[in-house]
Design goal:
By secondary structure, this protein is mainly β. It has one helix and seven strands; from the N terminus they run H-E-E-E-E-E-E-E. The chain has a five-stranded mixed beta barrel. The chain is globular. The mean pLDDT is 87.
């Protein structure tokens, strides 16, 4: 330990104070929605599209009342997050080391 791996590709991305606060974006499809720890929180397992920007194939987004959810530029709700829905999300840089990793969703845009 720690585990070792041989990367296929490494992309260096410049960080600024501006995008540090914004988080990291991911595009994909919701594969599962379930209750999460914390009153009213849900956990959305997202299967990510295969792009250079998506660092993970799968990630669990914890959606709280603080998460901004939109659809077609209008406010949406957690009830709109269902299996099969395509999303673009911004999540925290802090995440668990589990597989798949879990992190807090900052904003979610439903693109269906």
């Amino acid at each position: 330990l720690p585990p070792q791996n041989t990367p296929e590709k490494i992309t260096v991305v410049e960080r600024s104070e501006e995008n540090e606060e914004e988080g990291v974006s991911i595009k994909g499809e919701i594969a599962e929605v379930r209750e999460a720890a914390g009153e009213g929180n849900i956990a959305c397992t997202v299967k990510a599209e295969k792009t250079e920007e998506n660092a993970f194939e799968e990630i669990v987004l914890i959606v709280s009342d603080d998460t901004k959810i939109t659809k077609d530029g209008k406010e949406a709700s957690k009830e709109d997050l269902k299996e099969g829905v395509k999303i673009e999300a911004v999540h925290s840089l802090a995440m668990t080391r589990s597989i798949p990793p879990q992190t807090s969703a900052i904003s979610i845009d439903i693109v269906d």
